[in-house]
# Entry
Amino acid sequence: MAKAILSVNAGSSSVKVTFYALENPPRAIADAQVSGITAPPATFKYQRGDFQQKEEPQDNLSTPQDAFKYILKRCFSDADLAQVASEQDLAYICHRVVHGGDYHEAIEINDETLHHLEELEDLAPLHNFSALEIIRLCRKELPSVASITFFDSAFHQTMPLHVKAYPINQEIAKANGLRKYGFHGISYSFILRSVAQFLRKPVQNTNLIVMHIGSGASICAIKEGKSIDTSMGLTPLAGLPGATRSGDIDPSLVFHYTNQAGSLSPASTKDMHLSVAEDILNKKSGWKALTGTTDFSQIAVENPPSEAHKLAFDIVVDRILGYIGNYYVKLGGEVDALVFAGGIGEKSALLRKTLAEKCQSLGVSIDSDANDKGAEDNQTVKDISKGSGKGARTLICQTNEQFEMAYQIVRSRS
Ligand SMILES: Nc1ncnc2c1ncn2[C@@H]1O[C@H](COP(=O)(O)OP(=O)(O)O)[C@@H](O)[C@H]1O
Ligand SMILES: CC(=O)OP(=O)(O)O
Ligand SMILES: [Mg+2]
# Structure
């Protein structure tokens, strides 16, 4: 009997997978990722128990499909990964799909659902393309394994209509699906459950402001266990700046940036229709455009190497702060915890310290030793608040989107 789940998190520049033994809760048995697909050379990282490997593959891995095929080849041929040696050992493949349109829950891929997802691709050309390429590949190469897709947008279905709706012509909005969807929901779902457990509160009584700050960054207001607002919108471009994304700008800026804005970008393909404006705001903006680096650890430093680095840091802090204030008010000041997650939220003590200092008026105060140390490798939630007084706790939560998908599968079977 097949015993493993393969969880796939495909991004525009990386493909990350984890294999889990089909147990309750799922147990990770191996992790593999290819990063740098769009900025060669690509790197391959592999971890199985204590064994770790990192190398630059000889193969030319320039698409998510190439990367995924390479990962499978490497994992299936690892003699010490006996649980997953072939297709027969896999029970399910979970795929993170960023934009799920009106889908409210995970779905199994068949001809009809795949077709529907392909129609959504136009709404999210940058974000769904890699995942769909891998789903198509799995159907071809691993046809006996069920592919289940999990949507980043599904968590935010609970946002009220006046939060979801944009103030534009509603007939056009409805016909074209133009509304706020919100993303990073697989991560928010993991964080909500983990933090509620940590606080010993039922999920449905838990109120949080959660920041998922990575190379894509968003923030979410959770009231009584439900998303009531989030910073990303129709696409993941809205809201906070990211490594290469502008985040919110005046929409008119597009028309003044270049007169080519509306035409097809050279990066556009037969399957991925991308305009010059989308390409610039998604891939040529953010802190990369300000400083030249996508690596936020070079920006979040006590003595920034240039004025541009300082500006990038200050902009990120300012935009996050704006949402914290907004969501604190929307939650009526009833906030159980302010939660830092995502690669940057989990690792940058300076970002946490700076934000906490600016949130003192909300009663936020952090312990500098606990903050500097950060979370241990196997510590899902760490409290970095000062004292044990009343008011919002400040927590770090090491989020895990691959685990969340495998967990949902196991839970739905039990
Ligand atoms: N110590 C650190 N301080 C600040 N940023 C960091 C640190 N370590 C990693 N990062 C940043 O985390 C980001 C990646 O976060 P992650 O959530 O993995 O992103 P994504 O899933 O969107 O690719 C990168 O911008 C990286 O530079
Ligand atoms: C939705 C999104 O921006 O995802 P990521 O942070 O993985 O790029
Ligand atoms: Mg991510």
About this structure: Residues 214, 216 surround magnesium ion (ligand 3) (CB under 6 Å).
